[in-house]
Amino acid sequence: MYKVYTIKRIDKSIANDEIWQTVPEADIEFAPWNQNGYRPKSTAKMFYTEEAFHVLLKSFEKEIKAVYRNMNDPVCKDSCLEFFFCPNPERDRRYMNFEFNPVGTLFLSVGEGRYDRKLLYTNWKEAFCVKTAIRKQTPENNSQPFWSVEFCIPFEFIRSIYGNIEFVSGHKMKGNFYKCGDETKYPHYMCWNNISKSTPDFHVPEFFGELVLE
Questions:
Q1: pTM for the complete prediction?
Q2: Cα separation of 165 and 185, whole Å?
Q3: What CATH number does residue 141 fall under?
Q4: Contact of 32 with 189, CB cutoff 8 Å
Q5: Tens digit of pLDDT for each residue in 30-73?
Q6: CA distances from residue 45 to 19, 72, 142, 191 in whole angstroms, order as listed
Q7: Into how many domains does the chain fold?
Q8: Shortest CA distance to 58 belongs to which of 80, 31, 38, 75?
Q9: Please, which residues bridge with residue 76 across strands?
Q10: Contact indicator for 113, 107 with CB cutoff of 8 Å
Q11: Is residue 141 predicted with pLDDT exceeding 80?
C-alpha cells in the first residue's frame, strides 16, 4: 500500500509564502524504527511550473545539529530532511536523493539502489535556488520553532541525467520524503510513505509512494 501525492501546477515561476499556502502538505508521519519516542513533526510540499519542481521541507525540531558545510558531506548525520524521487519509473529505475541539513548543505546522488550510486556535484545553492529558514553562521541559536529548506529542481537538470521527459499533467513519478538525524541527540528515522524493513534504510524504492502531476 502506498500513498499518492498530487503535485500542484503553478503558473508563476517564483515561489513565495502566498503560493506555498495554496500547496497541499504531505506529513512525514511514519517512524518505522522509533525506539526512543522522538518524532518531530515534519512536512513536505511540492509544486511544479513550466521549468522546474519546487520543494519545501520543514521540521519542528527543537535541538538541531548542523555540522557539515561541503557538498556531499554526510548530512544525514546532522538534522536532515530528504527527498528521494524517480522521475520516470516506467523507463528508468534510477532515483535521485536530495538530502539537506538546516544550513542547506546538500548531499546528492543518483542510482538504482544504495550500492550503485553516483555522486553529483554542482554549484548547488545557485543551481537549486536553496533557501533556509535559519542562518548558516549560528544554527544553534535558531529562535524559530522549526527549520526548513526550500529548493527547486530544474527540468533541464533532470533531463541532463535521464534524457527527455515530458513533465505534463498526469505524469507519474515515484518518491518519498524523509526526516532523520543519525548522530543527533535523539537519533530518528521518519518517512512519508511507510517502510517495512527491520533496520533503518531509506534506499528502498519498492516503498516509494506515487507522485502525480496535476
A1: 0.95
A2: 42
A3: 2.60.40.1190
A4: yes
A5: 999 988 999 999 999 999 999 999 999 999 998 899 999 999 99
A6: 11, 23, 22, 14
A7: 1
A8: 80
A9: none
A10: no
A11: no
